[in-house]
Structure to design on (362 residues):
C-alpha cells in the first residue's frame, strides 16, 4: 500500500530474454507466472505469450517424448533457466501440464457442453505430445457415449429415453393421456448438456483419429438430429465439419434412407417348416399381409423426414414380439419368430453398413 493506504497494483515482472544467437538483440518482456504451474524448484521454463510455466525437466520428459526432445534441445535462457517458447495457448499448455502432474488421469466422468473445452484441449495436446493414456481415456469416453456395438447403442438410447421421460408429465397409452410414472418435476434437462456429435467429429479429425468404429456412430447420431435443416439455427449442426464430412453427411443420409426404404418394402421369403401345405400357405399369406399393410406403411410413412431408422426397426420388432400383432394375422409362433429375426437382421445390416454409407472405410 502507498502512504494513503491505497493498494499498489503489482506490475508484471520485466525479464530480459537472451536469444540463442548472442549477436541478436535481446527482448524485454512483461511476464506473468502461472498461478499453479510455476514451480519454484523447477528447472525449465515454458512460455506462452506472456505466461510462464516453470516445470521439472525430468517429469515432463518422462511422460512425453516430444517434450523430452524440446527440453533437451538448445534453447533461450530466462531467469538462469532453459527457456522453451511454446506455440500453443496458455490454456492448452495448462491442460497438458495438469495431466502430466496429476498422474495422467482425466477426472471427467462425461463429455458434456461444460467439460468439452477441457477435453478438447487435453486430447489435442496429448495427441500432439504423444501422451497415450489420457488420449485412450478420452476416446473411451467417446465410445461409451456413442457406442459402435448395436446392443450398447440400444442400451444408451433406452437410458436416454428414460431420462427424457422424466420431463414429461403425461404420456399417451392406447390413445389416452395418462400420468407418466417417471415424471420428475425437479429433473434437470440433461440432454441439452450433451456435446453435439458434429463437434466431436471435428475434434477427432483434427487429432487424426479416423477409425470408422469411432466415427460411424457419431455420423449416425449427427444425422438423427440434422435431417430437418432450416430455421434460425441453419448451419449450426454441421458448422464444425470439414467440407468433405458435410458431403459425407449428405451422401450418407441418402444411402441410409434408400436402404431403409428397400428393406421396409421387400417382403421377406422365410424358411418356414410346416408339415402341412395349408399351414405354410396360411403363414406365408399372413407374413405378406403384415409386412405390406402394417410394417412397411409404418416405417415408410415419413421416409423423407425419418430421423432414426435403427430405432424405428427396433420399435417394430418389439411390437411384433410382444403385442400379438403377428398372431392376429394367423402366423404361427414359429414363423412369428422368423419374422422378428428377419427384422432384427435387416436392422443389423443397416447398422453395420454405416461406415460404407458415410464413406468412412479406410
Amino acid at each position: 500500500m502507498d502512504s494513503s493506504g491505497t493498494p499498489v497494483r503489482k506490475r508484471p515482472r520485466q525479464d530480459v530474454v537472451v536469444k540463442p544467437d548472442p549477436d541478436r538483440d535481446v527482448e524485454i518482456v512483461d511476464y506473468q507466472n502461472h498461478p499453479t504451474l510455476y514451480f519454484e524448484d523447477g528447472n525449465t521454463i515454458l512460455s506462452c505469450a506472456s505466461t510462464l510455466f516453470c516445470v521439472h525437466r525430468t517429469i515432463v520428459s518422462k511422460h512425453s517424448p516430444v517434450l523430452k526432445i524440446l527440453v533437451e534441445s538448445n534453447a533461450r535462457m530466462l531467469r538462469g533457466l532453459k527457456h522453451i517458447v511454446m506455440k500453443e495457448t496458455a490454456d492448452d499448455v495448462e491442460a497438458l501440464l495438469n495431466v502430466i502432474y496429476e498422474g495422467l488421469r482425466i477426472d471427467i466422468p462425461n463429455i458434456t457442453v461444460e467439460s468439452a473445452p477441457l477435453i478438447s484441449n487435453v486430447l489435442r495436446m496429448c495427441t500432439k505430445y504423444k501422451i497415450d493414456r489420457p488420449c485412450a481415456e478420452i476416446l473411451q469416453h467417446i465410445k461409451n457415449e456413442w457406442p459402435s456395438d448395436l446392443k450398447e447403442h440400444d442400451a444408451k438410447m433406452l437410458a436416454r429415453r428414460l431420462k427424457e421421460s422424466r420431463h414429461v408429465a403425461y404420456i399417451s397409452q392406447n390413445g389416452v393421456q395418462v400420468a407418466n410414472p417417471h415424471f420428475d418435476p425437479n429433473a434437470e434437462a440433461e440432454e441439452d448438456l450433451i456435446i453435439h456429435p458434429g463437434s466431436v467429429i471435428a475434434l477427432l479429425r483434427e487429432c487424426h483419429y479416423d477409425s470408422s468404429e469411432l466415427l460411424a456412430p457419431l455420423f449416425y447420431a449427427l444425422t438423427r438430429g440434422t435431417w430437418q435443416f432450416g430455421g434460425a439455427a441453419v448451419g449450426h449442426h454441421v458448422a464444425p465439419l470439414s467440407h468433405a464430412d458435410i458431403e459425407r453427411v449428405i451422401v450418407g443420409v441418402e444411402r441410409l434412407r434408400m436402404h431403409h426404404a428397400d428393406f421396409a418394402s421387400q417382403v421377406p421369403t422365410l424358411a418356414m417348416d410346416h408339415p402341412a401345405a395349408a399351414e405354410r400357405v396360411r403363414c406365408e399369406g399372413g407374413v405378406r399381409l403384415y409386412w405390406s399393410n402394417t410394417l412397411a406403411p409404418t416405417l415408410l410413412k415419413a421416409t423423407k423426414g425419418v430421423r432414426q431408422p435403427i430405432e424405428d426397426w427396433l420399435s417394430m420388432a418389439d411390437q411384433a414380439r410382444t403385442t400379438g400383432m403377428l398372431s392376429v394375422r394367423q402366423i404361427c409362433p414359429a414363423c412369428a419368430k422368423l419374422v422378428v429375426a428377419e427384422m432384427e437382421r435387416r436392422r443389423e445390416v443397416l447398422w453395420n453398413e454405416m461406415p460404407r454409407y458415410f464413406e468412412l472405410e479406410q
User: Anything to note?
Assistant: The longest helix spans residues 277-300. The first strand starts at residue 13 and ends at 17. Residues 227-234 have pLDDT under 50 and may be disordered. The beta strands are 13-17, 27-38, 44-48, 51-55, 76-78, 81-85, 170-173, 176-179.
